[in-house]
Amino acid sequence: MRPSFSNIQLDAVVALATSLRDDTKCKVSEEFWHGTNNAAFKVTFEDGVEWICRVHEEANNVSTTYTTARLNSAVATMQYIKSNSSIPVPTIHAYDSRNTVPGLGSGYIMMDFIPGIEVDCSPGTLCDENEIQVYEQLAQVTWELSRPRFHQIGPLYQSIQGDFYIGPFVNEQGNSFGPFDTAVEFFKFKVERIRYRYTEGLKTDARSDADRERAHSLLSLYEKIAAQLSDYDDGNYPLAHGDLGTHNVLFVRDLTGNLQISGVLDWDSAHASAWPDFGQFPALMEISMAGI
């Protein structure tokens, strides 16, 4: 069903995992998880150790510069978070951001398997006590991400020497933007991305003249607002996850039945960001305006 995942081979995942643990035998579950760009396979070794192999898709219309930068930044961010916070993230055992091995996609990360479940915070799904536990712990994650401060806005990378630094955003065409010194520059960049995606979407999406006019008016408003977002405009930028929500957080229940975060996943969109962008409400937990 997903042609971009069709070249992934379980035998290649097994061979990679076995080689990384001194030829310890393992098996890979045929069931897997996937998002927009990645598929994740559970690897179980004969001694009981469990890993996850996350493989990036092979997309013909995407630059390798983009996929390489995205994976390198995700790895660097996870390693930074593991060393500089108490946020639970998987330990990374190996990765290749420009893979050439058949069957392993365009890049992969081999990391620890973290047990846990996603929770559904739809109204009425959890009891009030559990909802409070989820909100409080997501707030704690957000607080911890606000503590590191960076002088520029952009994704986090790691040099060969092991130093962390802020680098450019890279789009799917392989073009680089930033890093940005001010929040205004960053928001102007975001507006341009929105305009580009809208323009590209019009090529295949038929819209009425009225819809087009409203969209252009909205984009013009975005541009005007971007130029005015000058509060906290220089330096001391926090680290945004980029897609923080219950769909990227795993929970387990402790002995008393309380929900505890066991892992925060999917750091592909993480970046040092401006404070108005950092302060977004967790994804999938927004207040529904239906009926109000």
Give a description of the structure.
The chain has 292 residues and is α+β, with helices and mostly antiparallel strands. The chain has 2 domains: 3-112, Phosphorylase Kinase, domain 1 (2-Layer Sandwich); 128-278, no CATH class. 33% of the residues lie in helices and 21% in strands. The protein has a 5-stranded antiparallel β-sheet with strand order 1-2-3-5-4, with helices on both faces. Strands 6-7 form a two-stranded antiparallel ribbon. Strand 11 and strand 12 form a beta hairpin.
Walk across the major sheet and give the strand order: 1-2-3-5-4
**Major sheet:** 5 strands, antiparallel
Cα-atom Rg, whole angstroms?
21 Å
Instruction: Please indicate the percent range of residues in DSSP E strands (runs of 2 or more).
Output: 15-25%
By DSSP (H or I, 4+ residues per run), the number of helices equals 6
End-to-end CA span: 39 Å
Order of secondary-structure elements: HEEEHEEHEEEEHHEEEEH
Low-confidence stretches: 287-292
Helix content: 25-40%
